[in-house]
Amino acid sequence: MRILIAGAGPSGAYLANLLAKKGLNISLVDKLKSPLNNPYSSAVLPLKSISQFSIPSKVISSYWNSWRIFSPSSNIYKWENSDSIGVVLDFGKFRQYLWELASNSGVKILSGCKVAKVISYSNYATVKLISKEGRSFVEQFDFVIDATGSKRELLGPLNNDQIGSFDKVLTGYGIEWIAKVDSITYNFWKDNLTFFLGCKWIKYGYGWIFPNGDNCLKIGVCSLEKMFTNKINMNRDIKNLLKKNNLSDFSVVERHGGELKSSIFRSESNIKQRVIGVGDAISTANFLGGEGIRHSLLSAKILSEEIFNIYDQVSYINSSDLINIGRKFQKRLRRELSWRWPISNLIAYKVWKKISTKEGDDYIEEVISELSNKASPLDLSMILFDYNFSRYGLRLLPYVFKSRKICL
Prior knowledge:
Structural class: alpha/beta
Distance between the termini: 44 Å
Strand content: 25-35%
Number of strands: 18
């Protein structure tokens, strides 16, 4: 069986490795010439994800044990744990590790190459590829996997016409700079995940500063509102973040950015003819914490298992087989993500939309204060990583929605 995977980010590269280890013929295509290029991701993971996906220590840039929030009124709230809660990855090194893992498993990696066109037939697909030298060529595959992230280059752009009337597509854009600071400055930010909420920082979103090891800081801003996601506004906001935290004089060694797009309820189809999506291409990025890596890896693991199940039973994949793979994959993924997934996305949508006025700032201050009084650092992790609202989270839902009626 020959499979082409378009996109060598976490979901694509991890899936390629899993499939190749089972003896499948896998080609992995990515526009980047190097996995170290444009390493855009805040790359924060809870500790349990490190063991769950066997992530090596060599790609971990720092550990953290506390949450810290600069509120709209400039109050500083902190939840500190005695032991580490999670890690910040060096995303470039992590992606490089996944490429190496795939290559060692026999995956054919076509870097600096892009998929120009996919034509689906009843039992196979032809794919037109353009190499990094500009040469075009056509190859045949059993089917193709779209792992191109929220761009969905093969499945087609995600919009509200492709989802249920009860659902909504959320789109955010962020930029992140890596700043090299001195050791005294770094010591203030290390061990903390620091967030900035309120209009004074950024409207319709939030800012962050995370430790990145070697006296480097990840400094970023993101917004869910289109009118605030142009480069001029985003650069203004990140410069404001640097200035207000006395970081403007330090050198910026890396600048990158990207788009995050997901539907709240994940109601879009994950398959189009002989193309099936995985990772961010099928809305596995969650907006509550703005994270996608661990969910992308999980989706790749589940999809690989469903492909193996079919592969063991048939000599080739026909259209109905592919539809069954997509259906079972979607069902299992929904079960794994659970009912908490759409609730967390709804909370994110309501919260980020409120960060636009003085009234919204007062509301955010109230929510943060309530969390400060009632939640421990591990409780906060349960809310933000596990979307578990059964303890402190449920008490906070009235603060989030202000009423029992949820309106999009």
